[in-house]
């Protein structure tokens, strides 16, 4: 980042800035790639210009099958809560499964790859997927009495049963809320309570790093915590992991826990017609971290979301029905929803679901999977690319796979790392897209259409067709492209994939994402409601966007969002803790990781054991992903005269950068004391 760019970034964000590189030159895709690409027509950007908004998005809606075609493409009468494709009736499960049967019933829909190499890969055809989705939908309808509009929380690991569960619920119009399997039972409980779920669907166990993890135990914790908060889960439905024998040590609770695999036998051969749902009916909730402690349930609609997932999968991911596509994200994140499940299945591709970690049992595993399944589209995050590069820089060359296309997502990618991805993983042949987006946005905001726009390492690319980014400074003035000045990146217009609201909290939706640059709060015109992404960005002359990082209190660890308040609240669960402040620290592989600063209540002493207890609390409250690099128990927090903790100073100490002027603090002496601690490790 240049000094000029830096100047524009606010105090909080400075510590979060991940990008320290400059513009790079272009790379072009091969003629071979272009010859087969789904989208090669440069006029797509004109077709999706603001002048043609919102009608341009008809092109995406027409990738889907509708029971009843929509009447109005965009209803803004409740702006900024928009309704896309109003009047339309559609079912997501039908679009991802049933409609492919006639031509492609025998084609593989899902390749489930267990982590243990001695276990066979499960190849689920579209026909088989249809059968399994129907049977499970019958169970959900009959045994659970679930119906359209109900919410169900899923806390499942990577498995074929996860999309089967999502699609069975979607078939009935039931709203699914999948919680990342690595999250704690307590995190699942918060989401059960917020969504008002009466059923929890989970799995007994799964493999990770060669170990069989008991996952069922988390369901007990989720159940109890939710009950304490007044939400009564009626049944816990437990899938047995691939292989179909119960493999958790935690015993079943009688009357509450049900083994799906057993119960399902009563539903063999049963069929359930997909329920035609209004286009704007919610399809799922996906919780994400924000500036307060409570995760937000981003509510995604059926028609708009699915149209956007399908359209972007077709044009950006370049998915054709004959492709074998592997996105290494977890289905518990939005990336997995849009780009493992809904997008690829809507397009009738074969999608790979891998249970485990990329380097188990060795650094060649990913490339072996790619070779064995003939994967030709590969999708992952910089954190994984950095790790694979570190542990096996020469591994890809040993395997015989052929990627035509690769994606990076979740955080900025260093040009050096990008070049390794391009030359070594992609063998110089694959087109790369860097895709910038968010849980809230349902699909890509900025990227390149790979056969139309060249790649530029370290830049996400221009706004997607139909997505019109704008950068504002803190006063709300537009920062024109090509000035090298950073600002708050917003999107001028709504789009079909965007979330509809925060579940049960419209006010928070409006205040957090729209208030800041709203031109008229009474307006029903979308032009008055720019969407605030929460990221800082610089736009180059050519319209390519470099995302610098978050400007709010969100830390992006390995491409996953953790709210600072969420982390701090977890630390405060430990009774000795008086105050907690978390800051991001640069990390080679993860991008950043959290450093936790703690001030104790009077009468308590700092100790290694206490620091560990605090770190353990982060893991049990949130999950292993929240583990701090270091817990610093400090004599006091550096504070302004008005009592605000100066996280910027803590971040500078953790990152070994200049703390700047501390004379305006109420307690400057404490900075020196903390610096001394840090230098002693
Ligand atoms: C935040 C959203 C996108 C789905 C997975 C993460 C950062 C995301 C990029 C990228 C630079 C990126 C942003 C964004 N981010 N993609 N390609 N380049 N930064 O979804 O957990 O909702 O996080 O991740 O800061 O706001 P999420």
How would you characterize this protein structure?
The chain has 681 residues and is of the alpha/beta class. The chain has two domains: 24-472 and 495-518, 3-Layer(aba) Sandwich (Rossmann fold), CATH 3.40.50; 558-680, ANL, C-terminal domain (GMP Synthetase, Chain A, domain 3, 2-Layer Sandwich). The chain is 29% helix and 22% strand. The strands form eight sheets. The protein has an eight-stranded mixed sheet, sandwiched between helices. Helix 16 (382-391) links the parallel strand 18 (377-380) and strand 19. It is globular and about 75 Å long. The mean pLDDT is 94. Bound molecules: 5'-O-[(S)-butoxy(hydroxy)phosphoryl]adenosine. The site of 5'-O-[(S)-butoxy(hydroxy)phosphoryl]adenosine has 24 residues, from helix 14, strand 20, strand 24, strand 25 and strand 27.
Write the layout of secondary structure elements.
Elements: H1 3-7, H2 11-14, H3 31-36, H4 44-47, H5 58-61, E1 72-75, E2 83-86, E3 89-90, H6 92-96, H7 101-104, E4 108-113, E5 122-125, H8 126-142, E6 151-155, H9 161-172, E7 175-178, H10 185-195, E8 199-203, E9 205-208, E10 211-214, H11 216-228, E11 235-239, E12 257-259, H12 260-263, E13 277-278, E14 282-288, E15 296-301, H13 303-315, E16 324-327, H14 334-346, E17 350-354, H15 365-373, E18 377-380, H16 382-391, E19 405-409, H17 415-425, E20 431-435, E21 469-472, E22 487-491, E23 501-502, H18 506-513, E24 531-539, E25 545-550, E26 554-557, E27 560-563, H19 564-571, E28 577-587, E29 591-600, H20 608-621, E30 630-634, H21 647-655, H22 669-679
Parallel strand pairs: 4-17, 6-7, 6-8, 7-14, 8-11, 11-12, 16-17, 16-18, 18-19, 19-20, 29-30
Antiparallel strand pairs: 1-2, 3-13, 4-5, 9-10, 14-15, 15-23, 21-22, 22-24, 24-25, 26-27, 28-29
The structure holds 5'-O-[(S)-butoxy(hydroxy)phosphoryl]adenosine.
């Amino acid at each position: 980042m240049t000094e000029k760019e830096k100047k524009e970034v606010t105090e909080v964000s400075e510590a979060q800035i991940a990008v320290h590189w400059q513009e790079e030159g272009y790379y072009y895709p091969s003629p071979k790639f272009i010859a087969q690409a789904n989208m090669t027509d440069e006029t797509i950007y004109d077709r999706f210009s603001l002048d043609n908004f919102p009608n341009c998005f008809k092109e995406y809606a027409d990738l889907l099958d509708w029971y009843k075609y929509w009447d109005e493409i965009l209803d803004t009468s409740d702006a900024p809560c928009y309704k896309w494709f109003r009047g339309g009736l559609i079912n997501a499960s039908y679009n991802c499964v049933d409609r492919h049967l006639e031509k492609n019933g025998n084609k593989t829909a899902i390749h489930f790859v267990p982590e243990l190499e001695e276990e066979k890969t499960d190849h689920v055809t579209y026909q088989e997927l249809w059968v399994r989705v129907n049977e499970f939908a019958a169970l959900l309808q009959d045994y659970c009495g679930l119906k359209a509009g109900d919410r169900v929380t899923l806390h499942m690991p990577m498995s074929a049963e996860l999309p089967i569960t999502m699609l069975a619920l979607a078939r009935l119009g039931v709203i699914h809320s999948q919680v990342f399997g690595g999250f704690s039972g307590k995190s699942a409980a918060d989401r059960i309570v917020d969504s008002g779920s009466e059923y929890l669907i989970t799995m007994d166990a799964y493999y990770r790093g060669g170990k069989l993890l008991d996952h069922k135990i988390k369901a007990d914790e989720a159940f109890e915590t939710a009950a304490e908060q007044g939400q009564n889960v009626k049944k816990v439905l437990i899938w047995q992991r691939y292989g179909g024998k119960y493999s958790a040590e935690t015993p079943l609770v009688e009357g509450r826990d049900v083994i799906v695999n057993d119960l399902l036998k009563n539903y063999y051969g049963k069929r359930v017609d997909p329920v035609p749902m209004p286009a704007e009916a919610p399809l799922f909730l996906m919780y994400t971290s924000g500036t307060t402690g409570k995760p937000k349930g981003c509510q995604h609609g059926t028609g708009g979301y699915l149209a956007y997932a399908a359209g972007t999968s077709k044009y950006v991911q370049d998915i054709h029905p004959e492709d074998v596509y592997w996105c290494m994200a977890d289905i518990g994140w939005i990336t997995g929803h849009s780009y493992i499940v809904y997008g690829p299945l809507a397009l009738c591709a074969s999608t790979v679901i891998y249970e485990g970690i990329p380097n188990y049992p060795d650094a060649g595993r990913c490339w072996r999977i790619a070779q064995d399944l003939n994967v030709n589209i590969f999708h992952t995050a910089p954190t994984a690319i950095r790790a694979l590069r570190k542990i096996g820089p020469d591994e890809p060359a040993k395997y015989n796979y052929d990627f035509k296309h690769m994606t990076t997502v979740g955080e900025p990618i260093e040009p050096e790392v990008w070049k390794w991805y391009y030359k070594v993983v992609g063998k110089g042949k694959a087109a790369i897209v860097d895709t910038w987006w968010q849980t809230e946005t349902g699909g890509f905001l900025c990227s390149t259409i790979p056969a139309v726009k060249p790649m530029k390492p370290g830049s996400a690319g221009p706004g997607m067709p139909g997505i019109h980014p704008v950068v504002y400074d803190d006063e709300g003035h537009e920062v024109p492209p090509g000035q090298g000045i950073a600002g708050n990146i917003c999107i001028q217009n709504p789009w079909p994939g965007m979330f509809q609201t925060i579940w049960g909290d419209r006010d928070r939706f409006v205040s957090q994402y729209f208030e800041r640059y709203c031109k008229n709060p009474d307006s029903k015109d979308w032009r008055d409601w720019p969407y605030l992404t929460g990221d800082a960005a610089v736009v180059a002359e050519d319209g390519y966007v470099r995302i610098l990082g978050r400007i709010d209190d969100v830390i992006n660890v390995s491409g996953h969002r953790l709210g600072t308040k969420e982390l701090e609240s977890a630390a405060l669960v430990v009774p000795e803790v008086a105050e907690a402040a978390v800051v991001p620290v640069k990390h080679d592989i993860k991008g950043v990781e959290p450093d936790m600063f703690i001030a104790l209540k009077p009468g308590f002493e700092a100790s290694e054991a206490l620091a560990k207890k605090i770190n353990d609390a982060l893991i049990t409250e949130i999950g292993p992903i929240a583990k701090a690099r270091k817990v610093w128990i400090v004599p006091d927090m550096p504070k302004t005269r008005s009592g605000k903790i100066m996280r910027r100073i803590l971040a500078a100490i953790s990152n070994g950068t200049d703390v700047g002027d501390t004379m305006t603090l109420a307690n400057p002496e404490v900075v020196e004391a903390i610096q001394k601690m840090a230098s002693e490790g």
